[in-house]
Amino acid sequence: MPYVARGGAKIHYTDTGGDGPAVLLGHSFFMDHESFAPQRAALGPHYRLICIDSRGHGLSEDDGTPFSYWDLARDAWAVADHLGIERAVVGGVGHGAFTAVRMALLARPRSRGVIAIGSTADAMPARRKPGYREVLDAWAGTAPLTPIIKMVSALTIGGTDDDKQPWRDKWLAGDRTRLRLSTDCLINRDSVLPLLGEIDCPALVLRGVGDQTADPDEVSRMARAFGVPTTVHTIAGAAMSPNLTHPDAVNALLRGFLDGLPD
Asked: Residue 193 has what DSSP assignment?
């Protein structure tokens, strides 16, 4: 298994390889690198896709030390350093996009572009924190997990039962306590909205029309805050994970964005 050690963490990643331009991708909360299978299949022949499991997810490991999205951003750049990648497009979905934006802020000269799917740049509003805390504490607790999984999969994946069932099965078989530190990272995230004007590389912002985690006004505010003109693209019928449930529409937008980037 490919891992990069950073501090007390072991960060797992997958790499399509090749000499194409590099794209570092981070998954949404609850998910892992496998959520990008449609992008690996469609874009892998032309681009080098590196999909990173964040701490608390997938095959990555951590030592129980609290972390922030800035730490996850440094983890991802550590993977790039390990692979000898100097410049890359940084992107992700939800949780992964929070990380990607901070990657660009930490290393602007290394960032060829930013892809933010189902994401905002704001701190979590206070009114949402109790609801998120209740669900995520229940996930990591001892109550029956199946009802929680059904609700979470509808919100974070959407799509059809065929889209959701593999993830439901994976979650039921996994360690439900792993998300405790990721929960704190998500709920206590800082706002980077005032900093986005420093990002002067091209940015692609996508949102599923049915995404209940990324408010349309917040997404538009993020797009306007980038240092370059940025448009929000909406995916009809999609929720938080359009890359998984509506790959044709998302892959077309990704391919157009990536092919149009300056060298």
From this structure: G
pTM of the model: 0.97
Helix (H, G, I), strand (E, B) or coil at 51: strand
Q: How far apart are CA 49 and CA 70, in angstroms?
A: 21
Report which of 171, 185, 183, 172 is spatially closest to residue 58, judged by C-alpha positions.
Answer: 171
- Amino acid type, 238: A
Gap between the Cα atoms of 229 and 207, Å rounded: 17
**What is the C-alpha to C-alpha distance for residues 50 and 103, in angstroms, rounded to an integer?**
14
Domain 3-123+191-259 is in which class? alpha beta
Q: What is the pLDDT of residue 253?
A: 98
Segments of the chain scoring below 70 in pLDDT: none
Q: Cβ distance 59 to 32 under 8 Å?
A: yes
pLDDT score, position 49: 98
Q: Residue 152's closest CA among 168, 134, 176, 174?
A: 168
For the chain, domain boundaries: 3-123+191-259
Beta bridge partners of 4: 11
As given in the structure block, the two tokens for residue 82 are: 């390990």
pLDDT tens digits along 92-107: 999 999 999 999 999 9
Sheet holding 232-235: strands in order across?
3-6, 9-15, 48-52, 22-26, 88-93, 111-117, 203-208, 232-235
State the amino acid at position 255 in one-letter form.
R
pLDDT tens sequence across 61-70: 999 999 999 9
In the chain, how many H helices and how many E strands?
10, 8
